[in-house]
Structures are given as structure tokens and as C-alpha cells.
């Protein structure tokens, strides 16, 4: 929602400027970035849109609007800056908000992955987007053909041509966000395209699409694509597969909960607020949230800290992610050997089921494996997650 509000308010502050709108755009965009780094694509959207709309002489393309954006972004970050600054921890905060070294390592890990053909990758991502949101992508085609690059045959509503181009720019920025850090384009990144795709429906221009000077041939092809997309979506819904995006990311149990949600409830009922837990594997990451429990150390994700980064993409399995011994592994092992070790350890098979590992890198973490075998016992399984509880004494 914050990403959607950020994009909409950026466009609105350029179209009909007010101080409230421009500052609100900065606040929404700033908060979106704090929650998810891919929201950084709102920055190039704002810059490019400002340059374009200044050429088009939009009333909001002024320095005052930019100042409002920057002020709003500062307000979004202010509470965290004050909180961490009062504790002398501004450097860790900055490293967390702008993790250049981590992002660099995440991106360069792809050098060990499979070779990528750029043209094939573009085609795969476009097909992925169309398959996930077929009707909205068809509507976007109507917008593009009918308004963005059509010859000026029919009269546009005031500002519609420029607005639709800015919305198309937002779609492009959101689409590129899925490739940040190595071009992985995972299916669950597609949700970032949804606000701009929905907004493109506001600029459907059948008259422009069908009235082009090519005799309407392209327009008729687009109309056929829209009808085909509608039929495809109806078939998907009838087959129980209409919620394709949800199926990409979320795996539900029979009671409707996700596995991490069920594990979180299980752990929360058996621990106190000052107890800690540790999870291992990608699909277990949300357990921290659902259990409302912290990790015993700063290492709450093994991937990229206790192992190498993954090299798989939405379209390839990638290479292995071996265990990385060193100070971080020693810190985690020390927490399990300390006076108050984690109450639970949650194991996900994602290192072997999702990433290209013949064996889980946990098996190479011999010190932790020894402690888990000695002090922990499996007590429950929810979906693909196995819950190990520490045995008293």
C-alpha cells in the first residue's frame, strides 16, 4: 500500500501540486523504502517524471515539489534516525538502510550462476507478468497503443496523454525492480507492478487504439488480446487457479493459515517475550514475525550470512549455496552454547528444495548440528517446516 500511495502521490503532486501532496509522496515513498528496498525505484520514477512533466509544463514540475518530496522522505526516516542516534548506532542504521556491500555480494553471486541471454530474459519476464495479471496487462496494451505512442488522430482528454506516459513509466520502473541485485525476477516481486497496472485501466482509450491510421489493424489485434486474456482468466478462476500470484509465494495449510503463521502461533504459546528462536531456510523467515520472537544474534537469516547467496532465478535453479565458516557462524554457535540458548529451532528444506543443493549447508555447520542433536527434539511439523524444541537440562 505504501508503494502504491507513493507512486500515486508523486504523479498527483506533479499534476496538481499542493504542499500536502508532495510531502505525502515523500513520506509514503520513504516508508515504502524502509519496508522493502525495491521501493527505491520510486526515486527514478520521480526524477524522470519530473523532467518529462517539466517539458510538458505541468504545474507541479517545480523545485518546490522536489523540496516537498525530500522533506517527506526525511520525515519518514526521522523516527528511526532519532531512535538509533540516541543510542549512538547511526552507522549500523545506515548500513541496514543502504546495504551496499550486501547488495553487491547478492548481485555478484550471479556471476557463479547460469549464463543469461538478455533477450530471452526480457521475453520470460514479460510472459511471467502477462500470465500472472492477464487482464491488467491487456488493459495496459490498450493504454500503450491507444494513448502513449499512437498518432494524434483523436482528441485526448486534457493531460491524458502525459498522464498515461507517466503511468507507463511507473510500470517500467516497477518491472525493473524485480531485477535489482542480479536479475532474479522472482514471482512474488510482481506485486510491485500491480498499482501501476491498475492505474493504467483509468486511461483505456479504445477510440485511439482502434482509430489509428493503420486502418485499426493493431487496435483489432489488441482487442483480440483483451478478449483472449479475459477468457484465459475466467478459465483459470473456474479451475481454481485464478489467484496465481498468491500461489507463487504463499503455501496454505488445510486450516487456511500459512506454515510460518501456524509455527509462529505454536511457538508464541510456549515461550515468553524474552525467549529467542532461530530459523533456517527461506520459507521459515516469516516465523519471527508470527511468533513475535527475536533471533539470539544479529544473524536471523542463514542465507548470505552463514552461507553464500543463492544464484537461482524465477526461470533457473542456479548453483549451490555452501556453508561459510567464520565469525558469524561462531557467533551463532556461541549463542546456542550460552546461558540462554534459543527455545526453538525451525528448519525449512528450502536450501535443497528451492536452491541447487544436494545436501543442506546446515550439515556442514558441524558445531551447530552437534548442539541441535544433543539439546533439541522435533516436536511438530507444519507444511514444510519442522519445529525443534530445546529439551530442558
Task: Summarize the structure in short.
This protein has 18 helices and 4 strands.
Helix and strand string, N-terminal first? HHHHHHHHHHHHHHEHHEHHEE
**Tell me, what's the shape?**
globular
How does the major sheet shape up?
Answer: 4 strands, mixed
Number of beta strands: 4
Helix tally? 18
Average pLDDT confidence is: 83
First CA to last CA: what distance?
47 Å
- Low confidence ranges: 151-158, 245-249
* Structural Rg: 24 Å
Description:
This protein has 393 residues and is mainly alpha-helical. The chain has 18 helices and 4 strands. The chain has helices at residues 2-15, 19-35, 42-55, 63-85, 90-97, 100-108, 118-132, 134-148, 160-177, 194-200, 206-210, 217-238, 244-249, 259-268, 287-291, 327-337, 350-353, 366-375, and strands at residues 277-280, 344-347, 376-382, 385-390. Strands 1-2-4-3 form a 4-stranded mixed β-sheet. A hairpin with a 2-residue loop joins strand 3 (376-382) and strand 4. Helix 1 (2-15) packs antiparallel against helix 2. The chain is globular, with a radius of gyration of 24 Å. The model is unreliable at 151-158 and 245-249 (pLDDT under 50).
